[in-house]
Structure to design on (372 residues):
């Protein structure tokens, strides 16, 4: 398990960075935003939740219910809130709640889900829509590891929506750039096809499609730690949100970076003296 | 079942399922997914049909890329002697 003086791990799947680790994390955030902008992506700053109306179109909760984390509030009637406040609220490691209000949203499980509902129709021949977003994401897991598998983590995504050729060119370019960045950071990675962790995969058409027509490529450090992924969604989101590019539904693709995992890979590769880690500015500038 | 009969049955299933007006436009090498003839939800139904035809289960976690590329490829993958 990863340990470092500048890393506090609370055991519930959340890490706290300080000192040199926090400084480098900030540089990593800035560097990935520069990479996104150099690829023509404009930044968006969304809310931290997905509303039920969007979830219905994404079909996320059928495919990945095991990862869901719901934000919830107390039912607002006075008696319920008073009953909550007068009891022993915190018991050991959990919070005793009284009646909860209806749940209307989901804490973000991936950054790019905030983007698809905001895309709009483009005429034939138009350039692709290019956007980037970084959010805190939440995925409920059976086991957690500091920086490598967290409940609460940071994800930077770059999204392209356009024609099939435009999206494929975007993903090809980003894969080359990720490879170049990893070389500059002296991080050995290999790219491999992957499938998403569907619940009951054998019953999910999306899983079967990912098996027979691979659409997800991961950059793997140490053969198992996916520090980035490139995803070709075909027209899944274009159809779900009825976004057209010309006469056809648009194609979309996204490139995701798990920031804590990049920190984990750098820590494993270069050791605990963060000041000796390769500098990000040169790596990103060289790749872009 | 002879391979030609297998291919004919799969073609008939696709033509019927997707309501293809001119069956002659669909041959053994037509790219079923790339040409958007079949979608992901259709693949699940096709798997059930293949299992019925060959009277044996098909394990989706062992599917290889391109397994449903065309009628010829499907027949080769799931009905030849070296099938998966």
């Amino acid at each position: 398990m990863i340990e470092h003086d500048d890393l506090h791990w609370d055991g519930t799947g959340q890490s706290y960075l300080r000192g040199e680790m926090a400084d480098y994390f900030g540089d990593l955030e800035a560097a990935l935003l520069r990479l996104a902008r150099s690829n023509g992506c404009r930044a968006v700053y969304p809310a931290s939740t997905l509303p039920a109306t969007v979830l219905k179109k994404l079909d996320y909760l059928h495919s990945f219910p095991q990862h869901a984390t719901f934000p919830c509030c107390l039912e607002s009637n006075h008696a319920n809130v008073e009953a909550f406040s007068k009891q022993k609220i915190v018991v050991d490691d959990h919070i005793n709640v009284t009646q909860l209000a209806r749940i209307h949203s989901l804490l973000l499980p991936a950054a790019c889900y905030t983007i698809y509902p905001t895309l709009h129709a483009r005429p034939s021949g138009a350039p692709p829509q290019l956007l980037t977003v970084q959010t805190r994401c939440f995925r409920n897991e059976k086991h957690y590891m500091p920086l490598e598998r967290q409940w609460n983590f940071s994800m930077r995504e770059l999204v392209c929506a356009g024609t099939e050729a435009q999206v494929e060119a975007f993903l090809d370019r980003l894969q080359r750039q990720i490879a170049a960045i990893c070389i500059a950071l002296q991080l050995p990675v290999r790219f491999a096809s992957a499938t998403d962790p569907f619940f009951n995969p054998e019953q999910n058409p999306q899983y079967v499609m990912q098996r027979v027509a691979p659409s997800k490529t991961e950059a793997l450090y140490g053969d198992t730690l996916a520090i980035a992924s490139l995803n070709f969604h075909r027209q899944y989101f274009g159809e779900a949100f009825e976004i057209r590019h010309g006469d056809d539904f648009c194609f979309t693709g996204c490139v995701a970076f798990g920031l804590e995992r990049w920190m984990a890979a750098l820590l494993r590769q270069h050791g605990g003296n963060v000041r000796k880690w390769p500098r990000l500015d040169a790596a990103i500038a060289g790749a872009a | 079942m002879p391979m030609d009969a297998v291919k004919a049955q799969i073609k008939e299933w696709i033509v019927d399922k997707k309501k293809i007006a001119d069956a002659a436009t669909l041959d053994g090498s037509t790219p079923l997914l790339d040409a958007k003839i079949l979608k992901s939800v259709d693949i699940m139904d096709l798997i059930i049909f293949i299992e019925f035809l060959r009277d044996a289960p098909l394990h989706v976690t062992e599917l290889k890329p391109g397994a449903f590329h065309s009628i010829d490829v499907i027949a080769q993958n799931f009905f030849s002697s070296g099938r998966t």
